[in-house]
Amino acid sequence: MNHPFIWQDGKLVPFEKATIHVLSYSLHYANLVFEGIRAYKGKDGLFVFRLHDHMQRLLDSCKAVGLKIPYSIEELNHATLETLRANKCDANTYIRPFVFMGLGTLGICASNPPIHTAIATVTWKDNQHEGIKVKTSSYRKPSVQSTMNKAKASSNYLNSQLSKQEALDCGCDEGLLLDVNGFVAEGSAESFFMVKKDKLIVPPLDYSLDSITRQTIIELAEHLNIPMVHRHVVREEIYSAQEAFFVGTGMEILPIKSLDFRPIGTDKNPITKALFDTYMKLVKGETAGDLEKFAHYVVRV
User: Fold this and answer.
1) Which cofactor does it need (predicted)?
2) Which of 243, 248, 267, 283 lies in disulfide reach of 190, CB 3.0 to 4.6 Å?
3) How far apart are CA 301 and CA 294, in angstroms?
4) Interval 163-192 mean pLDDT
């Protein structure tokens, strides 16, 4: 559901007036960076999860692709809370901050497009967590010699969109992308984990975005005393895994019930479930007791 206000270039504007020109530079040349942030309705109000970390990554992405944003991290954090309050958000909400080039001279490297910053919010439906069917994609994650994989840039997501569409066309729910060396990289917009011999296997970030949800899951696994191994993974290992799952801001923690039409694990998935239950408590602001050390990750609106 669309919310009535969007924060754009320092002020709140009505939803219908938050527009750009069809000749905007980023629409043609894909120099846009963004974040996906979640706010959750908890027992004691609405909480934004890891707002500061997401905005820091937005600024890092801007620097990587040469977008000069005029706002500090404190100003972006304040603008996010201002937008949530103006829209009277009181349910689970998705937050989309983004920075892009507006109307200017067309050309592959125009020097004059203005830089715009916007923050939008939308109501987010609850996810289904019964598990998904995944297909290994025919697309590969681009080499770090070809693009800036650590920037959360729109240009990187054509690869993701094509891999997901391929999976959907094959009757699956998501794609699993390998890197150019054949090792598991990530999902179309998610980080990958698997469980083997009761250990959580964590693939490296050689070609992948440094996911904030991934960071959180690693910290929670340490908190829950789940043994971890950080190493490369090849796809045939996943076929015989005890458990496998994707994590991300949008999908949270979602079990993979099959890969390439081969069933994975069982319906119990104890490690996935333990991480999911702990994660959902944390994002809803339930940080009393043993989760108190993570309390700084949530900001009440």
Assistant:
1) pyridoxal 5'-phosphate
2) 248
3) 17
4) 96
